Amino acid sequence: MDSCPSVKNILLLDSEGKRVAVKYYSDEWPTNAAKDAYEKAVFTKTQKTNARTEAEITMFENNIVVYKFVQDLHFFVTGSEDENELILATVLQGFFDAVGILLRGNADKREALENLDLILLCLDEIVDGGIILETDADIIAGKVASNSMDAAAPLSEQTISQALATAREHLTRSLLK
Protein backbone atom coordinates (compact mmCIF):
# COMPACT_ATOMS: atom_id res chain seq x y z
CA MET A 1 0.00 0.00 0.00
CA ASP A 2 1.45 3.36 -1.03
CA SER A 3 1.26 6.33 1.28
CA CYS A 4 2.25 9.97 1.27
CA PRO A 5 5.90 10.70 1.93
CA SER A 6 6.30 11.63 5.58
CA VAL A 7 8.87 12.60 8.17
CA LYS A 8 9.15 11.55 11.80
CA ASN A 9 10.92 14.65 13.07
CA ILE A 10 12.85 17.75 12.09
CA LEU A 11 15.64 18.81 14.42
CA LEU A 12 17.72 21.96 14.62
CA LEU A 13 20.51 21.49 17.16
CA ASP A 14 23.49 23.60 18.13
CA SER A 15 27.15 22.59 17.91
CA GLU A 16 26.90 20.88 21.33
CA GLY A 17 23.83 18.83 20.42
CA LYS A 18 21.40 20.99 22.39
CA ARG A 19 17.96 21.93 21.04
CA VAL A 20 17.40 25.10 19.11
CA ALA A 21 14.10 24.09 17.45
CA VAL A 22 12.57 20.63 17.09
CA LYS A 23 9.27 19.16 15.92
CA TYR A 24 8.27 15.52 16.33
CA TYR A 25 5.53 14.01 14.17
CA SER A 26 5.77 10.41 15.38
CA ASP A 27 4.90 8.65 18.64
CA GLU A 28 8.15 6.71 18.42
CA TRP A 29 9.60 9.00 21.10
CA PRO A 30 6.73 9.35 23.61
CA THR A 31 8.50 11.27 26.40
CA ASN A 32 10.77 14.28 26.55
CA ALA A 33 13.49 12.04 27.98
CA ALA A 34 13.21 9.75 24.93
CA LYS A 35 13.35 12.75 22.60
CA ASP A 36 16.41 14.16 24.40
CA ALA A 37 18.12 10.76 24.27
CA TYR A 38 17.42 10.45 20.54
CA GLU A 39 18.74 13.97 19.85
CA LYS A 40 21.91 13.29 21.85
CA ALA A 41 22.46 9.92 20.16
CA VAL A 42 21.92 11.18 16.60
CA PHE A 43 24.15 14.19 17.28
CA THR A 44 26.91 11.97 18.69
CA LYS A 45 26.71 9.64 15.68
CA THR A 46 26.92 12.47 13.13
CA GLN A 47 29.16 15.09 14.77
CA LYS A 48 32.42 13.77 13.33
CA THR A 49 31.16 13.83 9.74
CA ASN A 50 31.69 16.70 7.35
CA ALA A 51 28.16 17.57 6.25
CA ARG A 52 28.86 21.23 5.53
CA THR A 53 28.91 21.24 1.74
CA GLU A 54 26.06 18.83 1.06
CA ALA A 55 23.60 16.70 2.97
CA GLU A 56 24.68 13.33 4.36
CA ILE A 57 22.44 10.30 4.89
CA THR A 58 22.73 7.63 7.58
CA MET A 59 20.67 4.80 9.05
CA PHE A 60 20.07 5.20 12.76
CA GLU A 61 17.77 3.12 15.01
CA ASN A 62 15.88 1.77 11.96
CA ASN A 63 15.33 5.30 10.65
CA ILE A 64 16.86 7.25 7.80
CA VAL A 65 18.45 10.48 9.00
CA VAL A 66 19.43 13.18 6.53
CA TYR A 67 21.54 15.99 7.95
CA LYS A 68 23.53 19.08 7.11
CA PHE A 69 25.59 21.53 9.16
CA VAL A 70 26.19 25.27 8.82
CA GLN A 71 28.33 27.26 11.24
CA ASP A 72 27.11 26.15 14.70
CA LEU A 73 23.72 24.79 13.58
CA HIS A 74 23.00 21.15 12.77
CA PHE A 75 19.88 20.39 10.68
CA PHE A 76 18.33 16.89 10.77
CA VAL A 77 15.31 15.27 9.10
CA THR A 78 14.28 11.75 10.15
CA GLY A 79 12.08 9.37 8.18
CA SER A 80 11.17 5.71 8.39
CA GLU A 81 13.58 3.15 6.98
CA ASP A 82 11.40 2.65 3.88
CA GLU A 83 11.08 6.37 3.12
CA ASN A 84 12.69 7.80 0.00
CA GLU A 85 16.04 9.41 0.89
CA LEU A 86 15.72 11.97 -1.92
CA ILE A 87 12.41 13.22 -0.54
CA LEU A 88 13.90 13.54 2.95
CA ALA A 89 16.93 15.34 1.48
CA THR A 90 14.58 17.73 -0.36
CA VAL A 91 12.75 18.50 2.90
CA LEU A 92 16.09 19.11 4.63
CA GLN A 93 17.31 21.38 1.82
CA GLY A 94 14.04 23.34 1.84
CA PHE A 95 14.28 23.87 5.61
CA PHE A 96 17.99 24.70 5.43
CA ASP A 97 17.55 27.24 2.60
CA ALA A 98 14.40 28.80 4.11
CA VAL A 99 16.20 29.36 7.42
CA GLY A 100 19.10 30.91 5.49
CA ILE A 101 16.69 33.27 3.69
CA LEU A 102 14.81 34.21 6.89
CA LEU A 103 18.04 34.83 8.81
CA ARG A 104 19.40 36.81 5.83
CA GLY A 105 22.30 34.43 5.27
CA ASN A 106 23.50 34.77 8.87
CA ALA A 107 22.54 31.27 10.06
CA ASP A 108 24.13 30.86 13.47
CA LYS A 109 22.78 29.86 16.88
CA ARG A 110 22.41 33.39 18.26
CA GLU A 111 20.53 34.62 15.20
CA ALA A 112 18.39 31.45 15.16
CA LEU A 113 17.39 31.92 18.81
CA GLU A 114 16.56 35.60 18.23
CA ASN A 115 14.29 34.54 15.34
CA LEU A 116 12.96 31.32 16.85
CA ASP A 117 9.38 32.29 16.00
CA LEU A 118 10.27 32.42 12.29
CA ILE A 119 12.01 29.05 12.44
CA LEU A 120 9.03 27.41 14.18
CA LEU A 121 6.66 28.93 11.60
CA CYS A 122 9.01 27.60 8.93
CA LEU A 123 8.69 24.07 10.37
CA ASP A 124 4.90 24.44 10.36
CA GLU A 125 4.91 25.48 6.70
CA ILE A 126 7.09 22.53 5.65
CA VAL A 127 5.42 19.64 7.51
CA ASP A 128 2.04 19.20 9.17
CA GLY A 129 1.45 16.06 11.20
CA GLY A 130 4.35 14.33 9.46
CA ILE A 131 2.96 15.01 5.96
CA ILE A 132 5.23 17.10 3.74
CA LEU A 133 3.46 20.26 2.56
CA GLU A 134 6.17 22.34 0.90
CA THR A 135 9.87 22.03 0.07
CA ASP A 136 10.55 25.20 -1.96
CA ALA A 137 12.58 27.51 0.28
CA ASP A 138 11.39 30.72 -1.43
CA ILE A 139 7.72 29.81 -0.97
CA ILE A 140 8.29 28.72 2.66
CA ALA A 141 10.18 31.91 3.52
CA GLY A 142 7.56 34.02 1.74
CA LYS A 143 4.70 32.45 3.70
CA VAL A 144 6.58 32.79 6.99
CA ALA A 145 7.53 36.41 6.28
CA SER A 146 3.96 37.33 5.35
CA ASN A 147 2.56 35.61 8.46
CA SER A 148 5.04 37.27 10.77
CA MET A 149 4.85 40.80 9.39
CA ASP A 150 3.61 43.13 12.09
CA ALA A 151 0.93 45.61 11.03
CA ALA A 152 2.81 48.26 13.00
CA ALA A 153 6.03 47.64 11.08
CA PRO A 154 7.38 50.57 9.07
CA LEU A 155 6.04 50.76 5.53
CA SER A 156 9.55 50.25 4.13
CA GLU A 157 9.61 46.74 5.66
CA GLN A 158 6.21 45.72 4.29
CA THR A 159 5.38 44.25 0.91
CA ILE A 160 3.29 46.33 -1.47
CA SER A 161 0.13 44.35 -0.71
CA GLN A 162 0.73 44.70 3.03
CA ALA A 163 1.39 48.42 2.66
CA LEU A 164 -1.85 48.84 0.64
CA ALA A 165 -3.78 46.89 3.26
CA THR A 166 -2.34 49.10 6.01
CA ALA A 167 -3.19 52.25 4.02
CA ARG A 168 -6.73 50.96 3.39
CA GLU A 169 -7.13 50.25 7.10
CA HIS A 170 -5.95 53.77 8.06
CA LEU A 171 -8.26 55.35 5.46
CA THR A 172 -11.22 53.33 6.72
CA ARG A 173 -10.52 54.39 10.30
CA SER A 174 -10.23 58.05 9.33
CA LEU A 175 -13.51 57.95 7.36
CA LEU A 176 -15.37 56.26 10.22
CA LYS A 177 -14.38 58.95 12.74
Characterize the structure shown:
The structure is a single chain. By secondary structure, this protein is α+β, with helices and mostly antiparallel strands. It has helices at 32-46, 85-102, 109-114, 116-126, 137-148, 160-176, and strands spanning 9-14, 19-24, 56-60, 63-70, 73-80, 127-128, 131-132. The chain has a five-stranded antiparallel β-sheet, sandwiched between helices. The chain has a two-stranded antiparallel sheet with strand order 6-7. The mean pLDDT is 84.
Question: What is shown here, in short?
Answer:
The chain is α+β, with helices and mostly antiparallel strands. Helix content is 45%, strand content 21%.
Reconstruct the topology from this structure.
Elements: E1 9-14, E2 19-24, H1 32-46, E3 56-60, E4 63-70, E5 73-80, H2 85-102, H3 109-114, H4 116-126, E6 127-128, E7 131-132, H5 137-148, H6 160-176
Antiparallel strand pairs: 1-2, 1-5, 3-4, 4-5, 6-7
